[in-house]
Structure formats: C-alpha cells, structure tokens
Design a protein that fits this description.
Layout: H1 19-24, H2 28-36, E1 60-63, H3 74-83, H4 94-103, E2 117-118, E3 128-132, E4 140-145, E5 151-155, H5 158-184, H6 188-192, H7 196-208, H8 213-226, H9 228-255, H10 261-264, H11 282-296, H12 303-317, H13 319-330, E6 345-348, E7 367-368, E8 372-377, H14 382-396, E9 405-409, E10 420-424, E11 430-431, E12 435-442, E13 445-452, E14 461-463, E15 467-473, E16 479-487, E17 489-495, E18 498-501, E19 503-511, E20 522-531, E21 534-542, E22 545-553, H15 563-569, H16 578-585, E23 592-598, E24 602-606, E25 623-624, E26 651-653, E27 657-660, E28 667-669, H17 681-695, H18 700-710, H19 715-719, H20 721-728, H21 736-750, H22 768-790, H23 792-801, H24 828-838, H25 857-872, H26 876-879, H27 891-895, E29 900-901, E30 919-922
Length: 928
C-alpha cells in the first residue's frame, strides 16, 4: 500500500498486510494442507432459479471489479500471499473491466458483454453453479451463476428473502462488513490493529458521527416510526437481514470456513477454533451507513476555510475588492459551468444581498479542536500524529470524495427509439470491493444491481423489471458551521440565552500487535464535545469573544432514514414510471444526483435534505448560533428542520440527454465544493454526448465508447492546454528546450490528449514525454501564474479551498494515487479563464483580475515558457518518485489503479481509467 501522504480515508485503511514475514517463518505448504480440510461449505444442489418479469431483452449489462467473492479462508489467504492464487470469483471481473481501456474503439452492441456481465434476471439452467437454502430454510434459495458467482436470491416470503440477502452478503463480504461497523463506531484499531492508517480512519469518521449506542438505536426507532407502514416493513427487513448474517456466522464458524482475517487479527484460533466472531445487530447497519453517507453523500462544510481565505483576500485588496476577488474564485454560479439540467433555475444557497449573522474569526485565532488525548505507545509516534492531521483535514474539507458518472440519452435520439443509459458510482478500488452485486426476487422486491456490503437488504444502484437507476455524488451544502459563544469555561456555551454544558463523548481504544498488523501496542482516547449545534470542530475568537465552531449536518442523527427510498426503488409495485422514481428518491436524505431510464422515459432528481436557512444567512461562512440564524423550524433534539420542497431541487424528465460527473446540477444551484467553472471533467462527457445526440441514432456501444474515451482523457490537456500553447506560440519559440516541449505537447493534443498505453498490456504510454511534461508543468505554471498577483498568503489560502491538481498519479490531490478517479478538483477553470482573458477572448464570469504576467500577453508568455522549461527538465523519476508498488520513474505504474487491500487477498494493478467502479449499460425494450 502506498505511503504517500495525501490519501482518502479508505485508502488509508490497513488490515492484514504483514503476512510476508509470517510466511517466511512457517512451513507454508504444510500449513496450507492442514487448513484445506474445513473449507467445505453447506451442501448445494444444481437447480434453475425462477426467472421474473424481465423487460431488458438481454440489453442490460453490469460490471464490478475485482470479483464477487470478497471472503477468503486462512488457507486461501496464505495461498494468495505465497503463490498469487485467487479464490474462485475473487478476480474474474477485473480483466474484462481493465480491457475496455484498449478495447472500446472497436466496440459494438454485440461485444459489450466481452467487457461487462449479462445483467438479465435469473440464471439459465446450464449456468447454475450452486443452489443453497440458507440455514435449511424452505422460503428462500440462493443461486450462484458459474461465470461470476453473483448471488440470485429468490424468496417466497418477505422474511425469507431478506434473510437470504443477509446470508449472501456475509458469504461474500463478512470481514469487510465487520471492518466498517467498527469504523463507524470509532473502534477500528482494537479490532483490526493500530497501524497509523487505521488510527486516521477511525478518527476521520468518528469526529463527524460521534454516536453513542443510544443514538444509533434512536435513529432506527425514529426512522421506522416516521415512515408508517413502510417504516415497519423496513425494520422487519433489517431484522431478517441481520438474522441471515448471523446465521452465516454460525455456519462458517462451526464449519471453519469463516474469513481468515479473523485468525490473522487474533479473533479466532486456526487450530482450536477458539475465539468469537461478534454477531451483528441492527445498530451496526446504522454505523455502517454513517461511514458510507459521510464518504459519498454529505455535501458541505468548509465554512471556516472559506472565512480564512475571504479574510486573506480582504487583507490583500481591501474589503470591497477582496470580496470581489474571492467571489470570482468561488464560482458559486459560474455562467460557463457545464450543467446536468439544461433548462430552468433552481436557486439554493445563493449569495444573499445583505448577509446576516456572520461570525468571522479574528485573524490568527483559529485552532482545530483536539480529538485525540492520552496517547501511549505506538499512538504517540510521528506516523500516528501525521495520520491524525490528515484525518482532521479530510473531515472538515468541502472537497469531499464525489466521483461517479452518468450518461443518459432519451429515446428520441437513439437508434432503437428506447432510452440508453451508461452509469455508475466511482467508489474507489478495493479488495474486497465496498459494493457487491446481487439479484433479489421476493414479495415486494425485484431488482438486480449493487449495494454497499452490510447494507444490501435492498439493491441500492441497479435495475428493476423494466427500469434502471443510478446515482452520482451531488455535493450541495447540507452542512453549516455555527459559532457558539462560550460561557463559564471552554466546555459551556450559550444556548438560546442559557449557559449550557457541552456533552462529552469518548472512545478509549487500545491495541496490540497481531500477525496481520505488527504495530506495537498503544492506546488513546478520542474525545468529541457535542452541542445542540453539532460537534465542535474549531476554537477561535470572534470580535474578541471566545467561540467554538460546530458543524451541523442535516443528515446527522438521520443515517437510517434513506432506507425508505431504497425500499421503494426495489418495489415493482411502487416504481412504474419516472414520476414514481422521483418520488422514491425524494426519501433519500443524502446528497446524490439520481438518474432513471426505462423503455420510454428518462428522468433526473437531486436528493438530500436541504435545510431552509434564515433570511440573510450565507451558507459559505460561519454564523452565530442564535435563533435568528438557525435553520427554519429546527428542532435540536431530533435535528429536524424545514427542508426545501421537491420542486426546488434540480429535477427533469425526458431531457434530450443527461450527463453528470459531479458537476454543477443546474443554474443558480450552488454546490459546496469549489471548482464548478468553465472547465470541469463533466465537460469531457458533455462534449462527447452532445455530438452523439446531434448526429442521432445513438447506440449502447456508442455511449459506452463516449464514456470510455472520456475516461482516458487528460482534462488539462484536452480543455486547457490548447490555450496555453496559444500564448506560448504567440511569438516564435526560440529556446530549444521549450520548443521541444511544445512540439511534444502539440503532438499529444493532436492525437487526442489521452493517457493510454501504446498497445494493450504494454505498460507504457503513447506520448509519454508529453504526459510527463504536463504532469510536471501544471503545478509549476499555476503557482507561477497566480502567486505573484495573489500573494503567498492568499494563494495558499485558496489552495486550501481547492487543490491545484488531481492527475492520476498525483499524491497532492484529495483522491490520492492509484485511485482511478482524477481531475475532480483542480485549478483548470482558473487557468482557463485567466489565459483566455490574457488572449483577449470573451470570458463569461471572468476572474476579478488578470493574473498571468499581470495581464500582459508577452509577460504571461515569459511566465509560461519559464515554468515549461523547468518542467521539461524534470526527469521521470522526479515527476513519479515511486512508492511501495512502483519504481521511481515508472509512469504507467504511477498512474495505475490498485485494488487496495481491505483484507488478505491481493490483486494485480491495471492501467488507468477514469470511470465508475460499478457500471451499468441498459436499454430496455419494453415496459409493463
């Protein structure tokens, strides 16, 4: 696992990884031979599952690398570590997924399933690998297919169906589910080991969802009570699902085929079978949901960072001009931003004419709230404290991991007359994968697709009988920062006029070395101070008064509420068209863009509980924790409020096409992350799909090609580099170093500006020198272009709001290296607008000033050539310094995608692609 410092939370997770030394000290062959005996699972017989109503006409496909099987016994882990062998179905979707990068140019409709799975309902009789009646139940059957091992769960009762879903989930992801319930509870280190990466992970998530066991149970009770009959049904489904998980724990424990990580982390003994795998309970699912929601569905935050950069701008330029400069970089409603909804206006979190209640910190007084206390042993090392710092930054940033994309074309523009969709979530690459595939058929449920492990009582992204749906992260602001005025001491605050004690919530964690993680023994206490306005994140003074800045999220204490929306999506009697789809996803309180396609219609809806803010409150900055500035009709004890109505959310039906790659949803709809300007990775999709729609007769293969082509594009090279070269070549380039670099860059742009292998499997890029030059040049040119005009302090503050770059190999972007997803956050719009302004071209929503060369074309050219020469002189080893996986200078490897190990099984790295992890290709031929 890479030890580069900039990593996402999940990239930092460490579970079994110290097996090499263990294997050296053991007789591997003898050990494996002794462990192979208990691998036999419950007996199964071949049979054909009942095929439900399927309107896809063999035109639904999906893919989810590396493979369906995410569990491995100790023997299988040892075989993998020693010889590279894979458990059955652990890796069989990785090759087809990887091969699309070079195979897409010749793709046809008939060859799509060379790179995807057939996602039709049911399993043909000759493709049934096994049939299981879990725990001997007569009301549910789990059929697994030969090709991928995906479970097809068919129940005759609702309870049996959900019991089977829980059992199948544990068969495929028990260890992963166990890891994440401990992450959600802030108890990962005692469970999986005290590696600094594990410390950072539990700290990042627990600080944003510091729930007690009573909090978790209350969320279940409240969600069930609020939703009437559907709430009661959801609670029954959860209980059945948990019972299925626990039945598998019992079976695998007695049969001794449980995941081997339990042995390697000291929870089970491989010889005597002593030890316990803790049973699941419904509150574990809420803890799991809090992690997934924080990762992918909680837009907002960053108000304190916004305040600091605004104050820096005002210090540099004065209040009026500094505010203008700040707003131009913020790009709240940039007129050049690519949109998902083409028409209409959906005002949300817009800039108020006269801001009220702002609580801006006094200069130099902001300090992050301490989370970790009483460090002992390995918790006090430099690596541990560094992990804590990284976790703290990730938790409070508005530049959250978004990812995921969607391309949907209406039937009016397709060859068949039926809508086509290519869509899916980018959830990173892990082994085992966070998502798992399944088909569920039972009373009130009929769906196939992907669900997060441990939350798979319903399909969360997938297809029904005659419709399909998917989501991308939207990122609109549902998190606000309040300044609570302190009284009496640092742990009391004024709450509606009364001096009120903060609530202290703690986790005391301790760990010892294990076979999997040899980190020395250590311990610490995590301590969060909670207020009615959420947990404390910072301390500061405002106008000389001591305050604590707290973070309040509309989904806080409501992690379980979204279950109703997913239940509806799986119900064929509920979803019969686009209107029903939109109604269903309105019940999902996380911030997502939802897309829908059936044989006749397409639709879009932006979900999330968007709070109605008080008049005059600017969502960008901290406000005083006073009734006048609270969310309208806010009830602190339950954290409920008035939310914007469904009609105010960006929504649409039957638009000519939709694209989304975490770009701006609609005009006047402000999203929390910075960077929704003239150049966004959403443009890579929009440009390609727009051309297809204009030509007409779009096919599934063409839409997959558009996605795959965009997934290999370097956004900087395709959309910004041509204008940079215009400036550079505005006069003859006489310097030989610069001229050679320009020639290489021009040739790359002419060839399409892709980061792609010379041939499949070559592990070397075409135009490798040009790619190296741009990777080196981009951070240098941004700094040379903007820092002289902004000044070091403001430039640094703005980079805290929005990272400069996110190239595939970049360790300085929020995604980290080897993660696939790239070009989500960066200064491409700023460079684009500034360079076009210097060139004298028309710019809508320009930056408040011209920065490159102070606005002089010749001076700008000098800046660019100077930084280009510097970049050209950087060797591959300097640009790609190497890590645990890649040698210094190995460009392809530096970009490559790694299935980061969350368990004991490792996989090979694949060539870079910027595409969804789980992806569907759908075109329904008929409707009920």
């Amino acid at each position: 696992m890479s030890r580069r410092t900039s990593r996402t939370a999940l990239d930092r997770l460490r579970t079994p990884g110290r097996l090499t030394g263990f294997l050296k000290s053991a007789s591997v062959c003898a050990l494996i031979a002794g462990l192979l005996t208990p691998l036999a699972q419950a007996p199964s017989v071949a049979a054909e599952a009942v095929v439900p109503n399927d309107h896809c006409g063999n035109q639904c496909s999906d893919i989810l690398p590396p493979g369906q099987n995410g569990n491995a016994t100790l023997a299988q882990i040892l075989l993998n570590q020693a010889f590279g062998s894979q458990p059955e179905h652990a890796e069989d979707q990785l090759g087809p997924y990887a091969n699309l990068a070079k195979g897409y140019p010749s793709l046809t409709n008939s060859t799509i399933n060379t790179f995807f799975n057939d996602a039709s309902f049911g399993v043909p009789a000759d493709q049934v690998a096994s049939t299981l009646k879990p725990a001997g139940r007569s009301d549910v059957t789990i059929v697994r297919d030969k090709k991928t091992g995906v479970p097809h769960i068919t129940g005759t009762t609702r309870y049996g169906t959900e019991f089977g879903a829980g059992y199948a989930a544990a068969q495929d992801r028990l260890w992963l589910m166990d890891v994440f319930r401990h992450v959600g509870r802030g108890q990962l280190t005692p469970f999986a080991g005290g590696a600094p990466s594990n410390q950072g992970l539990e700290q990042q998530f627990w600080r944003s969802a510091p729930y007690t066991e009573a909090d978790l149970q209350a969320q279940i009770d409240n969600a069930a009570a609020a939703a009437g009959d559907r709430g009661k049904l959801a609670l029954a489904d959860v209980n059945a699902y948990v019972a299925g998980i626990n039945a598998y724990i019992d079976a695998s424990d007695s049969g001794r085929y449980f995941p081997g990580e339990y042995v390697l982390t000291g929870h089970k003994d491989s010889v005597t079978n002593a030890g316990t795998i803790e049973k699941f309970k419904p509150t574990d699912l809420v803890a799991l949901a809090s992690v997934i929601g924080a990762l992918f569905g909680a837009g907002g935050g960053g108000e304190v960072n916004n305040a600091l950069s605004l104050l820096a701008a005002q210090e540099k330029y004065g209040v009026a001009e500094g505010t203008e400069v700040w707003e131009s970089f913020r790009e709240r409603n940039d007129p050049e931003a690519v949109l998902t909804v083409h028409d209409g206006s959906f005002p949300y979190a817009t800039k108020p004419a006269d801001a009220q209640g702002e609580a801006m910190p006094d200069a130099g007084t902001v300090a992050a709230e301490q989370l970790v206390y009483d460090r002992t042993g390995s918790a006090a090392t430099t690596g541990a404290t560094s992990a804590s710092t990284t976790a703290a930054k990730a938790a409070v940033s508005s530049a959250k991991r978004g990812m995921s994309n969607a391309l949907v074309v209406s039937g009016e523009h397709t060859a068949s007359g039926n809508p086509i969709a290519v869509f899916g979530p980018q959830t990173g690459y892990f082994a085992p994968q966070l998502l798992m595939l399944q088909e569920i058929q039972g009373p009130g449920i009929s769906a196939r697709g992907a669900s997060f492990a441990g939350l798979s009582m319903y399909v969360e992204l997938g297809r029904g009988q005659d419709y399909a749906w998917s989501a991308t992260t939207s990122g609109q602001d549902i998190i606000d920062t309040y300044a609570v005025e302190l009284c009496q001491d640092d742990y009391h605050y004024l709450y509606r006029g009364t001096c009120t004690p903060m609530e202290k919530v703690e986790r005391k964690n301790a760990w010892a070395p294990t076979t999997a993680d040899g980190t020395a023994a250590g311990s610490y206490t995590m301590r969060v101070w909670r207020t009615a306005y959420g947990p404390v994140e910072y301390r500061a003074t405002v106008g000389g008064k001591k305050v604590a800045y707290t973070t309040l999220r509309s989904s806080y204490l409501h992690e379980a509420d979204s279950i109703i929306g997913f239940q509806m999506l799986n119900d064929p009697d509920y979803v019969k068209g686009p209107e029903d789809f939109q109604e269903a996803v309105q019940h999902i309180n996380y911030t997502f863009n939802w897309f829908y396609a059936d044989s006749e219609h397409t639709a879009y809806y932006n979900s999330g509980d968007n709070p109605v803010r008080a008049t005059g409150v600017d969502a960008e900055f901290p406000v005083w924790a006073r009734p006048a500035y609270e969310w309208r009709n806010w009830t602190p004890t339950t954290n409920t409020a008035q939310y914007t109505p469904a009609s105010a959310h960006p929504n649409s039906m039957d638009q000519d096409y939709y694209i989304s790659w975490n770009n701006k949803q609609a005009r006047d709809y402000t999203t929390a992350p910075w960077g929704n300007g003239s150049v966004h990775r959403g443009n890579l999709l929009d440009d390609r799909v727009k051309k297809l729609v204009a030509a007409g007769g779009v096919t599934r293969a063409q839409l997959v090609k558009a996605m795959a082509d965009a997934g290999l594009a370097d956004l900087r090279a395709e959309d910004v580099l041509p204008d940079l070269l215009k400036v550079v070549t505005s006069s003859p380039v006489t310097d030989s170093t610069a001229a050679a670099a320009v020639s290489k860059l021009q040739a790359w742009v002419t060839a399409g500006a892709k980061r792609t292998e010379t041939s499949a499997g070559s592990k070397a890029y075409a135009h490798a020198d040009a790619i190296r030059i741009l990777d080196a040049w981009w951070p240098l040119l941004v700094k040379a272009e903007f820092e002289p005009g902004l000044g070091s302090e403001l430039y640094t503050a703005f980079t805290a709001n929005l990272p400069v770059d996110e190239a595939p190999s970049a360790a300085h972007g929020p995604t980290g290296s080897h993660a696939g997803s790239s070009f989500q956050y960066g200064w491409w719009s700023y460079v684009d607008k500034d360079i076009r302004s210097v060139l004298g071209e028309s710019v809508q929503g320009p930056l408040a000033r011209k920065y490159c060369g102070g606005g002089s074309l010749s001076a700008c050219r000098d800046v660019l050539i100077g930084s280009l020469k510097q970049a050209a002189g950087r060797t591959a080893a300097q640009v790609y310094p190497g890590d645990e996986l890649c040698a210094a200078g190995n460009q392809w490897c530096a970009d490559s995608i790694v299935q980061r190990t969350l368990g004991g099984i490792k996989h090979y790295n694949i060539s870079w692609q910027n595409r969804p992890t789980y992806q569907q290709v759908v075109e329904f031929t008929s409707h009920r």
